[in-house]
Amino acid sequence: VVAPEAAALAFGDEWRESGQWFRLLVPWFVASLSFGPIAQVWLLLGRQRDALAWHAVVLGASVAALAVGARTMEPAGAILLFAGVGAVARLFVIEVTFRAAGAKAGASLNVLARELVRAVPFVLLVWGVRAVQENVWATAGAAVVAIGAHLALIVRRRGRA
Questions:
Q1: Range of the domain at 151
Q2: What is the pTM of this model?
Q3: DSSP alpha helices (H): ranges in the chain?
Q4: Which end of the chain has fewer CB atoms within 10 angstroms, the N or the C?
Q5: Radius of gyration of the chain (CA)
Q6: Are residues 7 and 78 in the same domain?
Q7: Distances (CA, A) of 49 to 45, 55, 81, 117
């Protein structure tokens, strides 16, 4: 959401466009951050061949998406296709890994949904901060909602423990 502004602030205004490219790659980055540690389960299970095969599937899907996108789309579309296919491939392998470890079908999606819900307050806070350019009260309201939602999640989680 704030990648172009953050890039411009950190590196200068000429880097603003790189922040826009980064924004397109966010789904890929999020899935990649989860994929690395979870992929180690294959090694713990002694199934290195399976790990290699699934990594090859992810690599092949990502390279194919980038190649197709580069030939048939504008750069932004190609990057978005790469990010989407890469994210979906990684999420698929994460689900297969959960099942190989003995989890029920859809367990990885439940974990993902729970973590996305936890991210909502922070997204609201970022959107609220962006609104400061237009309206200070909107920013204050968004910050209050985000902090309240985050505190509610913390209280709810502690109540389960």
A1: 106-161
A2: 0.65
A3: 3-11, 16-44, 48-72, 75-100, 107-130, 136-160
A4: C
A5: 19
A6: yes
A7: 11, 10, 28, 35
